[in-house]
Amino acid sequence: MKEISLHILDLAQNSIRAGAKNIVIRVLEDSAADTFVVSIADDGCGMAPEMVKAVQNPFVTTRTTRKVGLGIPLFAAGCENCEGSFRLESEPGRGTRLTGTYRRTHIDRPPLGGIADTVAMLISANPALHFRYEHKRDGCAYALDTEELRRILGEIPLNAPEITAFIIEFINSNEAELESMEVQKS
Q1: pTM metric for this prediction
Q2: What are the structural domains, with CATH classification, of the chain?
Q3: What is the DSSP string of 174-185?
């Protein structure tokens, strides 16, 4: 995949299929450590240790609609090909956490890409779920939390078009601010 946000979309869909009610997506960038870390944690059904090992093989999937599962193996390979690492932790009944680390300045590290559209799409398509998206870069951070949005919005549904537009604008403006802070440091 050409953008990390597309990996996030695919992996978050796995969380949704696993029955997760709470999904936390984090992007942590550290220039000094030269790391770009993406983690997705959920409270879905989790996996037994043998399944954790098996899903890292592209020829294993829990889906019945196809015989291969490329999401996790492609994400892991992308991280490892950029001098990074991949970790998958899961426990039946407790959920799953995927963590992919890239060398931030590696020439082949894909861009984060359209993260605003990805997060907005996840929320809009699954308005009853709790999503939290956090992005931290060198000590500067912001977060979008659907529980906080629900408290503010009251009866307005999270998949209302004006709320989806707000989510996209909120994330895009915060991403631009993180980017401008990095430019100012240079």
Answers
A1: 0.91
A2: 4-185 (3.30.565.10)
A3: HHHHHHHHHHHH
